[in-house]
Structures are given as C-alpha cells and as structure tokens.
Design a protein that fits this description.
The complex is a heterodimer. Chain A is α/β, with parallel strands linked by helices. Chain A has a 6-stranded mixed β-sheet with strand order 6-9-10-3-11-12, sandwiched between helices. In chain A, strands 2-1-4-5 form a 4-stranded antiparallel β-sheet, with helices on one face. A two-stranded antiparallel sheet of chain A has the order 7-8. Chain A has 9 helices and 12 strands. Chain B is α/β, with parallel strands linked by helices. Chain B has one domain. In chain B, the strands form 3 sheets. In chain B, strands 4, 5, 7, 9, 10, 12, 14, 15, 17, 19 and 21 form an 11-stranded mixed β-sheet that branches. In chain B, strands 1-6-8-11-13-16-18-20-22 form a 9-stranded parallel β-sheet. In chain B, strands 2-3 form a two-stranded antiparallel sheet. In chain B, helix 1 runs antiparallel to helix 2, helix 2 runs antiparallel to helix 8 and helix 6 crosses helix 7. The chains are: A alpha/beta, B alpha/beta. Chains A and B meet through helix 2, strand 7 and helix 3 of A and helix 9 and helix 10 of B.
Chain lengths: 273, 488
C-alpha cells in the first residue's frame, strides 16, 4: 500500500483496483496508487509493464477500455470525463512521444491552452503583451530556445527539444498533478538536467508529480518521495527512493518472479493473494 | 487618423455582403421580369441598363451561341446534380432605385439597414454601401471618401461595369471577352448574354493602387440567377489588390451563379485577386444551396507581369471553378493559392490552369482541400508548357485533409509539357485529423471543437498567409463556422 503523507487526508489522485484492456489484452490488472499534494512518486517498471497505459488512462486518452476499478481526482471519479475536462481540473501529461502540430505555432498553442485553463480557473484573460512577457520568463528559466516559440509545435524539433517543450508547457500551464511519461527517455545528460530542473521548479506543497520511467537515472536529479514498481499491470513493490537504487543494481527480474507466482496462485486458489 | 486599408463597394444593391447566420431574406421591392430566357429578355436587360448598340450585339451573339443545338454544360467534372431548367430562372432583378441618393441612413430602406445589421456590417460601412452622403463625423468613412478622391486623382477607375460601359467604352470594348471569349464555355456564354452587373477596375500605367479594392456580392431574390461580370486591367507597371466577398441567403431551391472574371496585366504589372466565397451551401440533407459555376481567368499579357489568385471556398452546394493564368509575357508569373472546404453534401471540383507561353514563365500552385461530412472535394489542375515557353517552371502542391469517414478527396492533375527545358514539381498528400493530435491539444485543456479547428486552421495556414490581413481573419472565422458540428 502507498504510504500516506500526514499533511493531507484526501489523495489528489487515487487509483483503485484499476483494470485496463487494449483490444483483447489486459494491460493493467488491478493497479492501486494514492498520491497526495506535495509528493513525488516514481512508477518504475520494465517495458510493457503498463506504465504508459497508466498515465494515458489517467489523462483520458481514447483507445483504452477500463474493465474494472476507478480513478479519483480530488475525491471525484474522472472516468466519465473527456481529456480536456480532466486537463481543466488540473491534470497534465507530459507525453512520451510529443505530437507534431503542423501550422500551429508553439506560442499560439501555449496561449490557447493557457486561456482555456485560466477560464476554467475563473481567471481573467491575459493581454498578449502580458502573456509574451510571462512566456519569455518561463522559457528563459528553462533555457528554451526562443526561436522554437515561433515554430510549429514540435515540427522538426529534436527529441530533446520536444521533451523540453513538454516541460515548458508544464511550467506555463501550472497544473496540480503532473504525469511525466518517460520524459527522460532519449535525453543526453545535459538535456536531462534541464528537464529535471524544470520539474524541480514545478515541485511544491500544492503540486503532485507522478513520474514514470524505466531507468533510475532521472531520479538522481528528481528525488522521489515514493517509488513503486509496476510489473505486468500491478504494483508489486513500493518504497522510498532507495528502492530505485536497488532496482538499478538488481534489475526487475527479482521482482518479476513473485508477481508471476502470485498470478498463478490466484488462478490456483481462485482467490487473490 | 487610422486609415482603412480596404475600400469597398457592392456591385448592385441586391448584392450585399458577409453565415448562415448569413441566411435571411430581405424583402425589398425588386424589379423582376418574368422567368425564362429569350432574345427579348437579353434585349430587355441591355435596354434596362441603357447600353450602347455594340454591347447589345455582343450579348445577342453570346445568346445565339448559347442556344445552338449541341452546346451543352461541361460534363467532365466530378460533380453531380439534376438538370437545370434554364427557363425557370429570373435573369434580371435589380432593386427599384430611388431617383436621388439618400441623405442619411434614415432615408435608406429600413429592410436594407436591418439586413446590414444582421450581417454585422459596421454603421459607417453601411453608409458607404448604401451610397449615403457622408458627413465629417465618421472618420473612417470620410477617409474612404478621401480615398475615392485619391483613386480618381491617380486615374484609377473603380466602379460598376455598367457604368464603365457608359463612361469608358473604349476600355471595355478592348478588353471584355479578350481573356474569356463569349464562346469559352456554356456558363461563360450564358453570362455573356445576361450579365447583370459587376465590377470594373482600371489602374493606369505606373500606379500602385494604395488601397485594397473590394466588392461584396450577395444574391437575394428567390429563383434568381446571378451573373456578374468582373473586368480588371492593370496597365504597364501598375499594381492592384482586389478582394471579393460572396454570400447568399438560405433558399430551399438551388440558385445558379455563373460569373465571369477577366484579369489583364500588361508589362511589369501585378494583379492580386482574393476571394472569400461563402454562398449558401444547402442544408444538412443537401437541399438548396448555390451552384457556383464560375469562369475566372487572368492573362499575364506583358513581360514581367504577375497574376495571383487566392481563394477560400467554403460555400455553395457545388463549386465548379478554375481560376487560371495565361502566362503570355516573358518572365511572367502565375500563382494560385486555394482552400476549398466541403461539408455535408457539398461538392467542389476546383483548381487552376497555368498555361505557360512566354519564356522563363513561372507558376506556383498550392491547393488545400478539406472534406467533412459527405463532402466530395476534387482538385483538378492543368499545367501546360507550350513549345515557346523555354525555361518555364512550375511547382504544385496539393494537400487534402479528411474529417470523418464518409467524405472524399480526389486529385486530378494534368501536366502537358511541350518544351524540354521545363522544370516541373508536383507534391500531393492526403491526411486525416489524427486522434493523437486531437488528444494532445485536448490534454492541454482545449475543447475538442477548438482543437479540431486549430488543426484545420494550421493546415490552411500557407494559403491564409497570402490573404490580406483583415481577410485572413475573416477566412479563418468562416472556416470555423462552416465546420460547426463536424466534430465526432
């Protein structure tokens, strides 16, 4: 079970016995997770363990079937909400593969998104000049190439630039919950540091972060409060940040076997273990 | 003083501007002869306009050609519609004009003012459109008058073609039918016989027209065909940018629109022609709507001349239209930028023809087709390099975007090269609005409809960039309105 922060009673995100299928394949097989404000959780696991499925399902991406369980955000089930409604509630997903948007300038994209969120938060519209200044500051803090602001979203961006762009969006849109889906993959060490700095700047008592990764490396820069190991659609182990180091040293295999045994034992006894 | 960049007029009072929020009917006393077409009607139209003998004769020549036995509508385009009964159309309707121009808007037919208000035309512009004598209070309109004066001082002629026939017969006689002869095609011939009015513009040698010239066309009377005729001449070394806006009220029956536009650019002259076409497209089941069968052609007659067509076609039940360039002068340039949208049951067969005759002539074609609902969108384009066109170049790019699974996009390029030095490039893509793109935008808080619109707008960007700024905003808005309800 996820340890609870003593400061908050209600988790901002609560995943309850979540079962998710894509087509015939069951990807998540009873996942549980509670995240409170002020916390950083790392969900680690080998390829195909269901990490990306988890983040995408929380964000409401079409193409997944939820067969059982629930996802609560601020105590309310979000399963019936469209992705944009979830975003307006404060959920942000940094995509593993950011999408290219031909003909839509980065600046214009950020402004439209921010306006939609500000409207939902009951805030007034920013004048163009105010927005530009705000954006410039955010970009500067992230060492983001100002030229990329004038270009079409992610079009012709390098892998690193795309990931940076995701974190810039995080910083500009300022959600309550940030889901980072393998934001570290494909980054060299310098880009990784920039991205980590961006995430650390976002971190705070009124924010929550769930970081999904295959590798321990990014956790040297973003220190998680909790680490969970996801294998074959279930969290098989939770712990503190030292668990990540253990995984780095020993890989996932030592955790996999009990999971398989557990699955078998369910089949054998017909009762969850 | 903020100077307006656009100077606008309407071709006749019945033809006024700007959704279907545009769909309403103005009940203005109209002067309509009975339905049907015969020599008498042609003569009547000519007489109503007090035209000189040569003009009446030209119309009659066209009419006699039109009724010749084997002269038929073109059937090669990928559009389908039931046969048109040409005897069931009114060929002439002009609102009954008062003897004297009104002194203020109070004197203008209140129905007309109400119509303007529904269109969202600003008061100052309403005054300009209705020909109200303007006072000094309204800055922008005073400026417009200043510009009118400035145009005259520069020797620029801009007004109804009916007026030009009276006042500048030598120019009209010389150029009318010189690019689109009366025998060009079925619809152009019909237009030649019965055209009601239209716009005439002439820019004298060496003059750069300081403002955008603009005409709004609006169809009003039920069962009326609309046949306007536009003739624009840019004399040596001159430049003019002309904008055309179209709209028609909602009607249960189909309305025929058969216009002809002729452009002539002499040595070193440039004409930029932009169109926002938003004729009534018919309802969701395909009832009603305008048949837009239009012949538009420009002749880059002089050396180093340039003709550029930009069109945003969101309206009409059927669009059949190929704004073309005859690149006759050496080093002349032809351009065609197009966005054509087909939603519900709309059909569009549109594109361009670039006929290279002069040496080192260049042409660019950028065509963007958007299909939604059960819309069928065809790009049809001809690039023809004549033996004389040494060193000719063409670049063509056709992109199609599909929204939903019941619509279609078709690309029919014709390339004829008769000179081995020609350089031709052709690119074509077809794409769908991707779920990944939609999800990405929505994940950032943007509503689905807005997200979809952003993607489509992005697709059209290269063409919108060619429109004058005010028009680009309007085009983008028009696209949004035309796509309402296509999400899902």
């Amino acid at each position: 079970m996820t340890p609870r922060s003593s400061n908050h009673n209600r988790p901002i995100l609560e995943v309850r016995d979540l079962h998710v299928s894509v087509g015939e394949n069951e990807i998540l097989e009873g996942m549980n997770l509670s995240v409170h404000l002020g916390e950083v959780h790392a969900v680690m696991g080998p390829n195909g363990s269901g990490k990306s499925t988890f983040t995408n399902v929380v964000a409401g991406r079409p193409g997944y079937t939820i067969t059982k369980g629930d996802i609560l955000f601020e105590g309310e089930s979000i399963l019936g909400m469209f992705p944009d409604e979830r975003a307006r509630k404060g959920i942000f997903l940094a995509l593993q593969y950011p999408v290219e948007l031909p003909g839509i300038r980065n600046r214009e994209f950020l402004r439209t998104a921010l306006e939609a969120l500000r409207e939902a938060r009951g805030e007034t519209k920013l004048a163009i000049r105010e927005f530009n200044k705000f954006l410039e500051e955010k970009a500067k803090a992230m060492d983001f190439d100002p030229d990329l602001m004038k270009r079409n979203v992610n079009e012709g961006f390098s892998g690193g630039e795309k990931k940076r762009n995701e974190i810039l969006q995080l910083s500009v849109l300022d959600p309550k919950l940030a889901l980072l889906d393998e934001t570290d993959s494909g980054l060299d060490i310098d880009a990784l540091k920039v991205v980590a700095n961006g995430v650390n700047a976002f971190r705070g008592q009124d924010k929550a972060i769930v970081l999904v990764t295959h590798y321990q490396r990014i956790l040297n820069f973003i220190k998680p409060d909790y680490v969970h190991v996801l294998i074959e659609g279930r969290i098989v182990r939770s712990g503190g940040s030292d668990l990540a180091h253990e995984l780095e040293a020993q890989g996932y295999e030592w955790l996999r076997e009990p999971a398989e045994e557990a699955a078998e034992s369910v089949g054998a006894t017909g009762r969850p273990s | 003083m903020a100077a307006p960049k656009v100077i606008s007029r309407t071709s006749t009072q019945e033809e006024l501007a700007s959704d279907y929020k545009w769909g309403f009917v103005t009940d203005i006393e109209a002067d309509i002869p009975p339905k049907g077409l015969n020599e008498g009607v042609v003569r009547l139209i000519s007489a109503k306009k007090g035209e000189p003998e040569w003009m009446t004769e030209w119309r009659l020549k066209a009419y006699r050609y039109w009724i010749s036995e084997d002269y038929k509508e073109p059937r090669w385009s990928k559009v389908s519609f039931p046969p048109i009964d040409y005897q069931d159309i009114h060929y002439y309707a002009a609102p009954v004009k008062k003897e004297k121009g009104p002194e203020s808007l109070d004197e203008v037919d209140p129905e007309l003012v109400a119509a303007f208000n529904k269109l969202g035309i600003p008061l100052a512009e309403q005054k300009a459109l209705t020909g109200v004598a303007v006072d000094a209070v309204f800055d922008s309109v005073s400026v417009a008058t200043t510009y009118q004066k400035q145009l005259e001082d520069l020797g620029i002629i801009f007004g109804p073609i009916s007026e030009a026939i009276q006042k500048h017969p030598e120019l009209v006689k010389k150029y009318l039918g010189s690019v689109v002869p009366y025998s060009d095609n079925f619809y152009a011939t019909l237009n030649s016989a019965v055209f009601s009015d239209g716009t005439f513009a002439y820019v004298p040698p060496g003059v750069r027209c300081p403002v955008e010239l603009m005409t709004y066309f609006r169809m009003n009377s039920e069962g009326t065909g609309q046949f306007e005729r536009t003739l624009i001449i840019a004399d040596r070394g001159s430049y003019v940018s002309y904008l055309e806006g179209c709209t028609a009220p909602m009607r249960k029956t189909h309305q025929l629109h058969a216009a002809v536009v002729e452009l002539i650019a002499l040595d070193d002259a440039e004409i930029k022609y932009s169109t926002l076409q938003n004729w009534y497209p018919g309802d969701k089941d395909g009832k009603g709507g305008v048949y837009n069968f239009v012949t538009k052609r420009g002749k880059a007659a002089g050396k180093n001349s340039k003709i550029s067509w930009t069109q945003v076609e969101t309206g009409s039940a059927i669009t059949w239209k190929y704004p073309s360039c005859i690149l006759q002068g050496d080093n002349s340039v032809g351009e065609f930028y197009s966005v054509a949208l087909c939603n519900n049951h709309q059909q569009a067969d549109t594109g361009t023809k670039m006929i290279h005759m002069g040496k080192n002539t260049r042409s660019t074609i950028i065509a963007k087709g958007i299909s939604a609902g059960q819309g069928q969108n065809t790009y049809r384009g001809l690039v023809k390099i004549m033996p004389t066109a040494t060193g000719a170049r063409n670049f063509t790019r056709c992109d199609s975007l599909l929204i939903g699974s019941k619509c279609g996009a078709h690309t029919v390029p014709y390339i004829e090269v008769r000179n081995p030095t020609a350089h031709m490039e052709h690119e074509a893509t077809t794409s769908k609005v991707s779920d990944d793109q939609l999800f990405y935008l929505m994940q950032r808080g943007i509503k689905e409809e807005d997200a979809q619109y952003m993607i489509i707008n992005g697709f059209c960007k290269g063409v919108f960039a060619e429109l004058p700024f005010e028009f680009a905003m309007e085009a983008s808005q028009l696209l949004k309105v035309s796509l309402e309800g296509t999400v899902g």
